[in-house]
Write a structure and sequence with these properties.
The complex is a heterotetramer. Chain C is an alpha/beta fold. Helix content of chain C is 35%, strand content 18%. In chain C, the strands form 2 sheets. In chain C, strands 2-1-3-5-7 form a 5-stranded parallel beta sheet. In chain C, strands 4-6 form a two-stranded antiparallel ribbon. Chain C starts with a helix and ends with a helix. By secondary structure, chain D is α/β, with parallel strands linked by helices. In chain D, 28% of the residues lie in helices and 20% in strands. In chain D, strands 9-8-7-10-22 form a 5-stranded parallel beta sheet. Chain D has a 5-stranded parallel beta sheet with strand order 12-20-13-14-15. Chain D has a 4-stranded mixed beta sheet with strand order 1-4-3-2, with helices on one face. The chains are: A mainly alpha, B alpha+beta, C alpha/beta, D alpha/beta.
Chain lengths: 289, 359, 142, 610
Amino acid sequence: MSTGWLIGSAVIAVIVAPLIGGLLRGIDRKLTAHMQGRIGPPIMQPFYDVIKLFGKERCVAGKAQLVFGYAYLTLIVTAVVFFALRQDLLVVLFILFLGCIFLAIGALSVKSPYSQLGGHRELLQFLAYEPILLLAVVPIALKLQSFRIATIFESGQPLLPHLWLSFIALLIVLAIVMRKSPFDISSSEHAHQELVRGLVTEYAGPYLALIEIAHWYEMVLLLSILGLFWVVGSLWWLSIIIALGSWFIILIVDNISARLTWSWMLRFTWVAGISLIGSNILFINLGWM
Amino acid sequence: MARTVIPFGPQHPVLPEPIQLKLELEDETVVGVMPIIGYIHRGIEKAAELNDFRQNVFICERICGICSFIHALTYCEGAEAMTSVEVPPRARFLRVFWSELSRTHSHLLWLGLLADSMGFESLFMQIWRAREMILDISEMTAGHRIIQSTCIIGGVRRDIDKEMAKEVDKRLLAFKEMLDSTIAPVLLRDPTIKRRAVGKGMLSKEQAELLGAVGPTSRGSGVAIDIRQTGYAAYKEVGFEPVVETAGDSYARTLVRAREVYQCVELMRKALSMMPEGEILVRVDGYPEGEAMSRTEQPRGELIYYFRGNGTNNLERLKIRTPTFANIPTLLVMLPGCEMADVPVITLSIDPCIACTER
Amino acid sequence: MGILSTSRMKSPWLLHFDCGSCNGCDIEILAALTPLYDIERFGIVNMGNPKHADVLLVTGPANHRNYRVLRNLYQQMRDPKGVIVVGTCGCTGGVFHNCPNVLGGIDKVIPVDVYVPGCAARPEAIIDAVVLALGKLKAYGK
Amino acid sequence: MENEILVEKADFIPAVQKMLAEKARFGTTSCVDLGDKFELIYHFEPQESPEPLTHIRVKIAKEETLPSISSMYLCAALIENEIQENFNVQISGIALDYQKRFLRSKESPESALLKPVPYAPKPPARLPVRCGEACPAGIDIPRYVRLIGEGKFAESLATIKQSMPFPGILGRVCFAPCEDNCRQAKQEEPIAIRMLKRFAYDHASYGEKATAKQTGKRVAIIGSGPAGLAAAYYLAKMGHGVTIFESLPQAGGMMRVGIPSYRLPRKILDDEINMVKNLGVEIKTNTKVESLDTLFKDGYQAVLVATGAHQGMKLGVEGEEHPKVMECIDFLRDVAFGKMVKLGDRVMVIGGGNAAIDSARTALRLGSKEVTILYRRTRAEMPADAEEVEEAIKEGVKIEFLAAPKKIFSENGAVTLENIRMKLGAPDASGRPRPEPIEGSEFKVGVDSIIAAIGQTPAVPEQFNIEIGRFGNVIVAEGDTFATSKEGSFAAGDAVTGPASVVEAVGAAKKAAISIDKYLGGKGVLPVEEIKVKEPTSRHTFLERWQEKREVEVSIVDGSVTVSVEKKRAEMPCLPLEERLGKFDEVELGLTEEMAIAEGQRCWRCDLEQ
């Protein structure tokens, strides 16, 4: 595939990803409302929210926080670009991690106790899902002998039948990144939480909008990684179905469970995630998958 | 992480009302707690001395919007004792009906808030949807969704005729069916709810007695105190047995309230079916003189009014002890040692009603 | 009408503060969130964080202790912002007008845009009031 | 106001202390400003709520300081703070000072209040329940019923085994006093507790584990009925060497010779006896013990007499010695041991107890065409189990109420019974109305056989040399220790109580075994297996209010029936009538798993809340 084509697709990804992310958030809110017996906001609601936030008065708790906020957004966009350029999957993930760490440091850089606790919990959350995300790459590499995304596209065979255990582990990660019950501990989608959206308490107005957009990028990136599990020639559309399907499962789980505590989350994700991926790696090595 | 002090409240989304809990945290474990109250003190006790004793019904009703009818009832019971008024029997049964209606809607409200504080939004929505059915009954019988304002000294102001009673009965059955089919199974079975509530906020029977806990808070710890047993209004005729759980944790308190909702529905239906024909209001002559106490069971526990009159139009003293006031000290036992994430659940488990407490 | 003012109209975030009401109005505000009234249809969300909110919903009369908290919250909110008072007692003092610890209506502490009378105000009236307050947000900056 | 106590400031604290000693609950404090003075009224609630409040009233001058009562009633601290703030009343030494924003002031001692409690839900304290109290063997009924409802059959069986050794037998033949005392019976039907016991035995297995060290002491037990076997079981578990002497060719006592096999299959009985044998108990059948002294000489340190009540009572009517008149106990024994018994077509059974019903049903199975029971009172007074009576009627047994035999004689080659009609009179000592004959209402019935089933008494050999009671031939045994007049010998079961039930015999034997162990120098502690199951931390009632309909397929020999088990007591599937006659197959088939679980969940769990 020509370099020009790749660069073009990266540009398109940077522009389209937040649009898809926002739209998914809108559909998410609508579907959640329907599951709760309500009508719910219009699908374009997230865009209204973000545009409105851009129109709000600027207010920042500390310059440092601002820097970290921008760094978070930039790094996430970079990760998306690297993904679109079909670069090394490990590089994409590490850039993503760095971005997330900046978000947590941003929250920790202000004095508000809610923000502090939120940042603290974000780090715990990070501790819970990053190992899983990183480990999930290993079976892919084992299967294809390469970490490059381009290889996955070229391999010509779907990964899901061999790596479905890792796929399930990634679903847990998706739920955490989307901040859904039972994992929404650091900054809840639901306002009625003990930390008052702890992580972003001190971001206001346009800066909150930036964080929101970065979240959209992050979600789309995660969904794309899930989609990688079925990118083969003629059935490429299945990858989109898989990504959206997993997204929908997360929504349902969100609606049938209460929020749990961070200690539980850490235990659960590590035990479930690592054992799933571990057995996946084992099976590949044994030649069963 | 060093010790952090988190101001929990007075404005906080989990608490619909302002109470401040200064939580001392070590990492995420609560090691100390200091409730600070007084944000919505209005001075109703003093205002009651300034008003005509008949007007006080309406101000007492607005001590708390959730259990307003029971406040009015307690005031009226005391005022009637002081002016030696005999309330007609039909009015006494109607008072039971509206008391239980208030209790039902209060418990449902609380169950919803609990689900919400656990982050279980869809359950919150379902419970509040069921609650709307109760509010519809309130609006149909009393003319208002939450502040019924039907109780006055000497009886009640509105009657429920046969046709309406039939309709109410029908709606109550529909309501019960909804509880059975949607809410009760989730409350009982959902593992995430149990994980958040079972074993959280332990209050042993001895502690409950030592701290003078009342209402569902004490009944969740196995202390069977329920003032309805004294048989005020028409509770003696309707018949009543307190609901008790013994585990003493948040889940036990949840179950007490959930079971009481069922009990309330039964009591309401009984009150309507047993109601005799006759007057609903008698004329009140004379002015309050001497002293009186009146006690009732609010959704949150025992409510005590103390009256002192001097034979004039105004009361000399009105003292109100609300149930949450008696239950707040239990937080000092329940909170230390828990995780920050459990604070809302445990705080809510005593069903704090700050508007009552601070009057 | 620009896209910004359309967005402002479509996305008012609420902050609710109980300033000493009897709970009646507070639970009606909560009831407005629930399936029967579903305030989220209009993009209205209860935020709980003054820095994020556009509309402040106040219930109950101000008193000597909490008026500072109220003022503090109001100052933390970012422009454009609106204030709605829910309930008769918050509008004028109402039934609590002669209570010793009550200052009177909310407008003695902070500027109020919309008054919702009623004891307690109905959820329909509250939704209506939020929509009215949007007029102020829409006109902001013009 | 009533119940008020006026005190001076000096007497105030003693008055509160008195309240505390009486365990009164603190309600609240009202303060009234009287101009130059404050009046404080402390409201207390006596322990027995709902009683009127008691008020302690104290008047103090405005500059005076009142001591705080929060060292006695911690909950008073909050209201004392409030009074201090609102009225400027001076109160000293408040344990929790909210105004100064300290959790405790310096002068107040550190209290239990501020210590966090351990964060683990405790199972609620269990309350005595009516079903459990009614059980002579003291089985933890609510627990095993709950465990079946939870599908934990093995744990349920182990729970039963903790207090009673023979679930297989008692699950079939117990007269279930627990079910009569079930609280649920007041509103609906009682829980089928006996059927669940049988279910647990049929669907789970249990291995005996806890056995104490061997003590080297030896105990002889005379009689291998329920009392003897149960005592042997417990004594063996407590480490004693036990030998049972049985005069009949097979062990089991009344359970073998008195209960027909269609109610208690012999396999179950043999299994239970083998279970006891496996504990090391030796059973010597066909061995009649002549004297207790020889046993002591043979080296037994203690003897338990559990000979039961095997002596049939006489009818006391003319012509009773007629060859066609049989004692029911002899009849049942012969049938049990496979002797051919010729009855003829028309059989008359006299009596109204379980033995009479058993005899009648056995007679039907032996081929008799017309079986009639003659009873002096009405059905309401019949001592037999209502269920048994019903089954008997279903199978075709006729019951002649309010009639008693008067004379038996031969007429035209057949036996003829002359009966007299009765009417019910005033209640007698047993509380049942006394039947009185109606003069001139005699009638005659021709029958082929007569079975007398009016009761049994113990028959204790005189050589035993132990004290026999004046009434009913029973052995005199001390109430608590079951010791008889002879040193080292004890007695239990029907031999002591007169004819009673299996479960009562087992319950008594358990106590006797404890007593014997103590006599032999032991501590009298029964070895009990620990069961590890999750105890409920709360009572999840409103389960019962779910209108969930649970329909269950019940398969019966061939074909299947759908039974709705919602709220209703499970119905025991029974053998169809036509398959019963002429055979001794077990009639009750046992509950299915779904039915048992549904039945277990039906229990109200009175043990967790009254």
